[in-house]
Design a protein that fits this description.
Blueprint (H helix, E strand, L loop, with lengths): L2 E6 L3 H11 L4 E7 L5 H8 L4 E2 L5 H6 L8 H7 L2 E4 L6 H11 L2 E4 L11 E2 L1 H4 L8 E4 L2 H16 L2 E11 L15 E2 L7 H6 L7 E8 L5 E9 L5 H10 L3 E4 L8 H10 L10 E4 L4 E3 L2 E8 L6 H11 L6 H12 L4
Parallel strand pairs: 1-2, 1-4, 2-3, 4-5, 5-7, 6-7, 8-10, 12-13
Antiparallel strand pairs: 8-11, 9-10, 11-15, 13-15, 14-15
Helix pairs in contact: 1-11, 11-12
This protein binds nicotinamide-adenine-dinucleotide (NAD).
């Protein structure tokens, strides 16, 4: 079975999701929606994705020299599943549209958990989305926290976790946002990131704070975790070395900041210079008794992308086994583990 996938919103996440789906042999992109004939509409066309837009916008596309394959509604009706990659808060407005079209849909982390009632992370709860009409792939930060916390909880048990999220001010292509010369604390405490992790691991005792900083490349998390047993630093590294989509970097090798992590990602030759894994500084991991300290960096534009592919397989009942789906997605996307 080849799953017919539609992308609603061909922006930062949408275009990456389209590339990742196209790399798989059990799913295909049947079209993408665009609201305006921007450069990304031309990119979509050049990648061979039929463009869909509403009838009242069609003239602008034709004027720009772009062929329109049909309306967004026609695309949704022809698809098995829509990946909703519209801006945060817009996705929920589409839920009734997807319901009417009788199509499955995956929402992104900019929506609340309630939009789908199920939130997804491939390692932690792949089965929960099995056959579901709606699911939500959690945000980049939440994906990062789940990638490292879930394996730790499985191996040792977590009493309590605390994370300070140092957040990028904007994505590289987004010149409208900031700050450009300030550090901006999130004042509504604890921040929503802890409850968002709990949308996948409801039993986890976790609290978070966040500050926004003037960078476009990556979020960085400073984490402390009280484990249920005393373990060594080596045991923690061993658990993560077997967990999916975590990669180790080392200050000793010259990777001392997010800048070098992303330079490494570009050197690895991945599509768009993306880093789908969560980067953990191996020489910045320390356990004192049962308290673990570590730093991790999250490539906000891409860590959720392989999760979206796995979510499709779960929702469309293509692969029952989470580990097999993860391995298949990874192989197609060049992710070693
Ligand atoms: P984006 O602004 O880069 O892309 C959104 C796309 O949707 C654009 O192509 C835009 O033209 C289109 N769009 C806008 N309004 C629309 C509408 N009414 N109907 C159809 N299309 C519309 O946004 P993004 O960064 O890709 O974010 C998409 C979702 O992914 C959000 O929920 C966001 O929170 C989440 N997310 C973003 C990141 C990130 O770092 N960029 C990371 C993880 C999750």
């Amino acid at each position: 079975m080849t799953v017919k996938v539609a992308i609603n919103g061909y922006g930062t996440i949408g275009k990456r999701a389209a590339s990742a789906v196209s790399a798989q042999d059990d799913m295909e992109i049947i079209g993408v929606t665009k609201t305006r004939p921007s450069y990304e509409a031309f990119l979509a066309r050049d990648n061979g994705y039929p463009l869909h837009t509403d009838a009242d916008r069609e003239a602008a596309f034709k004027e720009a020299g772009l062929e329109v394959a049909g309306s967004a509604d026609e695309l949704f009706a022809a698809a098995d599943i829509v990946i909703d990659c519209t801006p945060g808060g817009v996705g929920e407005q589409y839920r009734p549209v997807y319901e009417k079209a009788g199509v499955k849909a995956i929402f992104q982390g900019g929506e609340d958990h309630g939009v789908a009632g199920i939130s997804f992370n491939a390692t932690a709860n792949y089965q929960e989305s099995w056959g579901a009409q709606f699911s939500r792939v959690v945000s980049c930060n939440t994906t990062g926290l789940l990638r490292t916390l879930y394996p730790l909880d499985e191996a040792f048990g977590i009493e309590e976790a605390f994370s300070v999220l140092v957040r990028r001010g904007a994505d590289p292509g987004d010149s409208k946002k900031g700050p450009i010369n300030a550090i901006e604390p999130a004042l509504k405490l604890p921040t929503h990131h802890g409850p968002d992790v709990q949308s996948v691991m409801p039993w986890l005792n976790i609290e978070t704070m966040a500050v926004k900083v003037p960078t476009t490349i990556m979020h960085l998390h400073a984490n402390t975790v009280d484990l249920k047993e005393e373990v060594s630093t080596e045991q923690v590294l061993d658990v993560w070395s077997k967990a999916p989509r975590i990669t180790f970097v080392k200050g000793a090798d010259g990777i001392k900041s997010s800048a070098q992590v992303m330079e490494l990602a570009r050197d690895m030759g991945r599509s768009r210079g993306d880093l789908f894994e969560i980067a953990v500084w191996a020489d910045g991991v320390k356990v004192v008794g049962s308290k673990l300290f570590y730093y991790q960096a999250v490539h906000q534009e891409s860590d959720v992308v392989p999760e979206i592919v796995d979510c499709i397989r779960s929702m469309c009942k293509v692969e029952k086994d989470a580990a097999r789906s993860i391995a298949k997605t990874n192989a197609a996307m060049g992710i070693p583990r």
